[in-house]
Amino acid sequence: AAASNLIEEEQKKKRKRWDTPTFGIRIPSSYGPGSRTCRVCGNPHGLIRKYGLMCCRQCFRSNAKEIGFIKYR
């Protein structure tokens, strides 16, 4: 009887964890790849972080000359 009560309590704890209102809701992260976006368009993909650019590759290509980058090839 005591063992079955322990098993039931463990199962209730597991169910309670999955029933919480925040489960499945994305919490905004303050670190990692999801926290960084392009400063021009806000796109999180293809981000160039080198030299503190924080600019996606598409925006970098369109603004490279204005920023001061020179294409050698």
Features of the shown structure:
single chain; mainly alpha; two-stranded antiparallel ribbon; 2 helices; rod-shaped; RIbosomal_uS14_euk_arc; 73 residues; 5% strand; 30s Ribosomal Protein S14, Chain N
Helices, by number, come to 2
The share of residues in helices is 25-40%
Unreliable stretches covering 5 or more consecutive residues: none
Annotated CATH topology: 30s Ribosomal Protein S14, Chain N
Organism: Hyacinthus orientalis (Common hyacinth)
GO biological process, one term: cytoplasmic translation
Protein name: Ribosomal protein S29
Family: Belongs to the universal ribosomal protein uS14 family.
Structural summary, described in words:
By secondary structure, the chain is mostly helical. The chain has a single domain, classed as Irregular (30s Ribosomal Protein S14, Chain N), CATH 4.10.830.10. About 40% of the residues lie in helices and about 5% in strands. It contains 2 helices and 2 strands. The chain has helices spanning about 1-20, 55-65, and strands at about 45-50, 55. The chain has a two-stranded antiparallel sheet with strand order 1-2. The longest helix has 17 residues, at about 1-20. It is rod-shaped, with a radius of gyration of 24 Å. The termini are far apart.
List the helices and strands and how they pair.
Elements lengths: L1 H17 L28 E2 L6 E2 H11 L6
Antiparallel strand pairs: 1-2
Family: Belongs to the universal ribosomal protein uS14 family.
GO molecular function, one term: structural constituent of ribosome
Keywords: Ribonucleoprotein, Ribosomal protein
